[in-house]
Amino acid sequence: MNLYYIFVIILFLIILYYSVKYIFFVLLGMVLSLYLSYKYLLPIIKNI
Q1: Does residue 4 belong to any structural domain of this protein?
Q2: Which SS3 state, helix, strand or coil, does residue 48 take?
Q3: What is the C-alpha separation between 5 and 18, in angstroms, rounded?
Q4: Domains identified in the chain, total number
Q5: Which domain holds residue 36?
Q6: Where do the H-state alpha helices sit in 1-48?
Q7: Rounded mean pLDDT for each run of 10 residues along the chain, 48 residues in total
Q8: Cα–Cα distance between 48 and 43 in angstroms, integer?
Q9: Residues 22, 15: Cα–Cα separation, whole Å
Q10: pLDDT at 28
Q11: What angle do CA 16, 28, 36 make, to 5 degrees?
């Protein structure tokens, strides 16, 4: 019974680790796209 709990905790930690990594990459992509759109769209808006 104790071994089962340890296995479940390890599995949960692995899932948590990969989901956090995935969320980090998604946030990084969002920030990068926001920065690029800010950098390239703002001069176009100013010219109009």
Answers
A1: no
A2: coil
A3: 20
A4: 1
A5: 20-48
A6: 2-47
A7: 90 93 92 90 77
A8: 9
A9: 10
A10: 94
A11: 165
8 assigned to some structural domain: no
Residue 36 falls within a domain, yes or no? yes
Whether residue 3 lies inside any domain: the answer is: no
Q: How many residues would you count in the chain?
A: 48
Global pTM exceeds 0.85? no
Structure token pair of residue 35: 């920065």
Predicted local distance difference test score (pLDDT) of residue 14: 95
Tokens of 20: 């956090």
CA atoms within 13 A on the CB side of 31: 6
Q: What is the pLDDT of residue 1?
A: 64
